[in-house]
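tmp note - Chorismate mutase
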Amino acid sequence: MNKDKDLNELRNEIRTIDKELVKLFEKRMTLCRAVGETKLKSQAPVFDAVREEENIRNLTALIENVTDKMYFTGWYRSLMDISKEIQRSICKKQG
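out:
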């Protein structure tokens, strides 16, 4: 029983974090749409490889657990891919 309680407590903590992640994800997507609109107006490209790699490098450096760095990098690249997809859709609709 004690193991189950510990597992349930851990899962509840994860759910709490997941709810926070949902809010942050939605906030990030809103900002990505605004970035897409700004890039469209200024005719800036959606993808900037140098900036993207620098961003990944800087954020990955904040991860303390060495093993987690690899997982973070993959997760963050996926997040940026979604952001670029949203920005491209804005440019297609209005471009």
